[in-house]
Amino acid sequence: MTISVIKEPTQKFLSTATADNLRLKDILQTLPSEVFQKNRRRAWTLVLVNVLMVSLGYVGLALAPWFLLPLLWIFTGTALTGFFVIGHDCGHRSFANRRWVNDLVGHLAFLPLLYPFHGWRILHNYHHTHTNKLDVDNAWQPFQAEFYASQGSIKQWLYQRMRGKFWWLGSIAHWALLHFNWSRFEGKQRSQVKFSALVVLGFAAIAFPVAIATIGVWGLVKFWLLPWMVYHFWMSTFTIVHHTAPDIPFTPEPEWNAAQAQLFGSVHCNYPRWVEFLCHDINVHIPHHVSTAIPFYNLRLAHRSLKEIWGDQLHECSFSWSLMKQITQKCHLYHQQECYQSFSDYYAQR
Q: Pairing with 78, which of 71, 195, 254, 336 sits 20 to 30 Å away (CA)?
């Protein structure tokens, strides 16, 4: 997209950036049509690259001396996150045109991660429909102070840890508590979620005993558990950064606006380039919330297009420990006026 293509609507959209009548379809009309086009060759090439990167990680784990293992766990776990991103596109039907291809590739991509595809897909699409909607969204929504106060001391302690220094365990809790419970779903969705959960449980029931019998308990920890923990570090980090900032509000349903939430309620974060490469640009998150139909390999083009119009109104940052410190020390409980309230401020006011 060139400046001449978007020059005419630019002033219109900038002038209505905070208007209540801003609509997603208005934003979508500013994007070049090519961002929505699936490229079969590119998609499958990146699948192949991802398989090669994960294989390289496992070969390294098998051959490298012990002192290189931490680096290889980080590399392999990050490459496994790329599998999740491929399955993520399958869940949004933006990987392939045929639904059965998306379902098959999605299940296979999620299998090493022990993620039930349909359970995640349905809940994740619900998050996209209700992004930053208070009491409805299911991704990193802060507790309201009244609800937090009503919880027992154990639940409060666990919530404090997940919103604090142990944020990196958040996606494990999300995975374990939500995606295997098919009783939460109805009709066809229940059958789909049950199928995915049983596929994962069946795979684990075979793979884990075989792994222990062949490579031992330490082999299972070395080749699966620790890379899996690194994967969950990135899952937790990507998702909390995507949807948490001191000035991004969760909005009550009567006041909620879809376009405002998707365009201004999600965050673009720059990570080291090797992370972005292995994770297929999952960090380029704003255009993904504007439209889940955009394949991951077109996200950068879509983001540049949005940036030409919306500029510094978009939330952008760079990954750093100071960023994580800001999020985990300030963004704890919902606050109507200030978006978030820290635990220390909450207890100081009691």
A: 195
Residue 50 to residue 141: CA distance in whole angstroms: 31
List, for residues 239-294, the tens digit of each pLDDT value: 999 999 999 999 999 999 999 999 999 999 999 999 999 999 999 999 999 999 99
Tokens of 182: 């098919």
* Calpha distance 334→142 (Å, rounded): 5
Q: Which residues contact 18 (CB under 8 A, 6 or more apart)?
A: 260
Give the CA-trace dihedral at 250, 252, 253, 256, to 10 degrees: -60
Q: Minimal CA–CA distance to 287: which of 271, 267, 273, 270? A: 267
- Answer whether residue 8 shows pLDDT above 80: no
pTM of the model: 0.92
Going by their DSSP bridges, the two strands 333-335 and 143-144 should be labelled as parallel
In sequence order, the 6+-apart residues with CB closer than 8 A to the CB of 338 are: 246
Which residues does 230 contact at the CB level (< 8 Å), separation at least 6? 73, 74, 76, 77, 78, 80
Q: How far apart are CA 305 and CA 284, in angstroms?
A: 12
Contact call for residues 127 and 137 (beta carbons, < 8 A): yes
Q: CA distances (Å), 145 to each of 73, 142, 259, 332, 335, in order?
A: 39, 9, 27, 10, 8
